[in-house]
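Aim 2 progress. For ROK family protein, the working sequence is reproduced below.
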Amino acid sequence: MKVLGIDIGGSAFKGAPVDLKTGRLLAERHRVEIKSPCSIKEGVAAAREIARHFKWKGPVGIGFPGIIEAGRIGEVGNLGDVWVGQNGAALFRRATGCPVRLLNDADAAGLAEMQFGRGRGKTGTVILLTFGTGIGSALFRDSRLLPNAELGHIPWRGKPFERYAAASVRKRARLDWPEWAARVNVYLAVVERLFAPKLLILGGGVSKKADKFLPYIKAQAKVVPARLHNDAGIVGAALAWARP
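Predicted structure tokens for this construct:
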């Protein structure tokens, strides 16, 4: 089965057709820049452009940066509060002219890593953490997803942890890799205290530079970079059509 996967981030919509059997992208991904926060009009236009770019007529899976329940959008992070309460599946179905399934963006990346990446065959508690504009998270127990686990929103010094340790913070505060890794270690210590994972998978765009920061990461669990890197969100979004 082939599905168009669309991964929505804080600065862009990215999409490509995906082979659900292999997890491979079937074409070079197409990226549409957006503003943050993003209006509904701009967001649906970005999804429409991606579908038209690939002349897509089949199913579409979308990883959305917010709480998702049965296609409806709950709490939203960087994309903006205008999306809260919207029927996201219906919005994007009208925009693309295709059947659409929606899930949380970090959950999507986690599904991809559990099926095709570092989490494949792993039991116990596995957590994927994506470091980008914010911190996304996907929580698994014996390969079963516990949806909408927003661990980047754990409070720290009166603010969500993602405002302290996201990859965007490293750039904005001009932190070197050891300085940023020290912040990530504080975050990981809290996550480990709460969930005692056996495996921590670090994803997002920063996973391509794992050699620069992994030597400074300290955790009780095994820590590995995501195998699918920044494509995990696209692949996992498509996997929405492989779930019941």
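The mean pLDDT is 96. This observation will guide construct design in the next reporting period.
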